[in-house]
Amino acid sequence: MNDEYNTILADFIVERLELGVFAVDAQFNIVLWNRFMHTHSGKSAQSLKGSNLFTTFPELPESWLKRKIESVFALGNYAFTSWEQRAYLFRFKHNRPITGGVEAMLQNCTFLPLKDEKGKVEFVVITLQDCTDNALIQQRLAEAITISDEERRKQQELIVKLEDAKNQLFQSEKLASIGQLAAGVAHEINNPIGFVNSNLGTLERNVTDLMKLMAVFESKEAELPEAAQQELSKIKKDIDFEYVKEDLAALINESKEGLGHVRRIVADLKDFSRVDQSGWQIADLEKCIDTTLNVVSNEIRYKATVVKEYGHPPLVECVPGQINQVLMNLVVNASQAFPERGQITLRTGEEGMYVWIEVQDDGVGIPSENLQRIFEPFFTTKPVGTGTGLGLSVCYNIVRKHEGELTVRSEVGKGSCFRILLPIFHGKMGESEELEAAHSVPQ
Amino acid sequence: MINGLNEDQSAALQELANIGMGQAGNSLALIWKEFVHLSIPRIAMVDASRLPDLILSFVGDTAVSASRQAFHGGFRGEVLVVVTARDRNGLAQLMGYEGQLDAAEREEVLLDIVNILGGACVGGIAQQVSAEIGFSAPSLIGEDLDPLDVINPEQLAIDTALSLEVCFQVENRSLTAHLVILLPNNEVGALADLLDQFLCTLEA
Q1: Least confident of A106-120, A148-162, A232-246, A320-334
Q2: Could you give the angle at the alpha carbon of B7 between the alpha carbons of B6 and B11, nearest 5°?
Q3: Chain B contact for A70, CB < 8 A?
Q4: What does the alpha-carbon distance between residue A151 and residue A168 come to, in Å, rounded to a whole number?
Q5: What CATH number has the domain spanning B7-203?
Q6: Which of A79, A254, B52, B59 is deepest in the core (most CB within 10 A)?
Q7: Cα A298 → chain centroid
């Protein structure tokens, strides 16, 4: 092979290769322009030779491309562009005039330094490879991956929802059985309380009558024979009759009070579990709080002082049984936040179309790393076996089902404040079967 | 001394790297028309499992973007460029980009920078030992990564690597880029041979 043949071969390759090839000198003047470039640019090598690249193609990104070519001159190394970041260097028509799918030919470019014998870069040769077909396949692949990723994400969401629903069901069932138990106990106690109450009333009347009789007896005592008087006075002394007289009234009063207390608790229990009326109702949230406080008073009595700061907001359309559950959870949780004893403040108020309730404690607070997770099912910081980690997640879901918001702010060492925000109106009254079925305490 | 290289070779490599980086700095200053400060190259033999920690030790605990490029010829390996997020706009200006960058341009800046820094530094060393080095097209590792995620040691094809790190700072711009040249341990022999040839020319 002689040099001449080599040159012919090289020229042929440069001309006929399905690859754009052109070269510029250090002043960016075009020194080579192959057939591919001619075909696609519409400008022939003859017309371009010696003309400046950027004057001839003002649409090229001059500042960036100059830097790029200069760096090849300076470093003597290859440089590259890829269609993925830069769709094309020259805006050429693509090779899909019929099938379409892209707006212009997508190109991978390589910048090659052409050096003289001393290693100095004389020209930079730039090759343009048409990547349109490959790129299309890759784009379709990328789209397919995006779709499948999206589907996987949706599946993941569904799994989480399923998990949520399972937890909710589990908790609902637990609460339902507690509710049933409470309702049953309340019902059973109600009957005996009824007749004890009625008997007590009768007893009180009878005792009053007896006392009247005794008063008359005592007034006539002096008229009795000496022996009978002595016998009576001995018995009176033995049974401490003066005290019995006073004590009888007190005993009956105390019993009535005690019984009243029992009746209130039973009423609250029934109220709380709403055995007689579940579903959407117009309810007074402050009454809900009072009922809940009565039910849990034993739990919190020795741990916290309760302060009420009621703002008397309007009545709210809600499922009171569920709101009671939320309040109970929040109040009991708050009472567990104190190392010794603390204060729980319950506030209510109105905000636009919403009513809010705040349950604030001045306890230990929640560290920020836990704060994001406290509404997650099964998240608990209590010792194993003490808490299920479901309480707050159930609260959260109940409030969410009410289209409200349950939020918390907390500072370690200063305490936490949970805020329930509930819309006043839902328009759900009378169409609440579905929600009831999922949630409420069965009768 | 560096594992796999004898004392003379280690010293020669350190010296060549210093000279190579000096040349790279000159070339870059020529392209960018800004003074480029390069740190003294840190050369070490590193276990593959230690590479993520090595990257972290170079850049510190901050989000980074990274790209890579392979080189081949007299010796083979890969270069990584790791930059912190805040340096990206400065880089883009140096590369002649104008205006606000879109996502694709931000990626392209990373590809360009590894091509230029890698070309300058590997080229600088190759020139000293008279080796011909070629480069493949660069590719992206990722953006806004944890420094520990730049290299996944479980995917590496090697047990140990020779690492040569240089830190670039461009005067007048608060811009720092880390270039890490990695040579697989089985290529260290090829480099050692080249260093021996270089040492011979010195003695001759």
Answers
A1: A320-334
A2: 115
A3: yes
A4: 25
A5: 3.40.1550.10
A6: A79
A7: 31
Burial class (CB in 10 A: 0-12, 13-18, 19+), A62: middle
Q: What is the residue type of B124?
A: G
Alpha carbon distance B78, B122 (integer Å): 10
Q: CA A78 to CA B185: how far, in whole Å?
A: 26
Listed residue (A102, A125, A104) closest to A53, CA to CA: A125
Distance (Å) from the alpha carbon of A90 to chain B's nearest alpha carbon: 17
Q: Which of A70, A72, A85 to mutate to test the interface with B (most CBs of B within 10 A)?
A: A85
Sign of CA dihedral A239, A243, A244, A245: positive
In whole angstroms, give the CA distance from residue B192 to residue B198.
10
Residues whose CB falls within 8 Å of the CB of residue A159, separated by 6 or more in sequence, listed in order: none
Which chain A residues have a beta carbon less than 8 Å from that of B107? 84-85
Mutate one of A64, A73, A129 to test the B interface: name it (highest B CB count within 10 A).
A64
A429, A315 in Cβ contact below 8 A? Answer: no
Token readout for A30 is: 């075009």
Identity (one letter) of the amino acid at A333?
N
DSSP for A268-288, please give it: HHHHHHTSS--SSEEE-HHHH
pTM above 0.90, yes or no: no
Any B CB within 8 A of A127 CB:
no
Query: What are chain A's domains?
Result: 3-130 (3.30.450.20), 277-443 (3.30.565.10)
* pLDDT at A379 exceeding the cut of 80: no
Alpha carbon of B77: minimum distance to chain A alpha carbons (Å): 16
B67-111 pLDDT, tens digit each: 999 999 888 899 999 988 776 777 888 888 888 888 888 889 889
ipTM above 0.90, yes or no: no
Cα separation, B97 vs B29, in Å, equals 17
Contacts B97 to A, Cβ<8 Å: 63-64
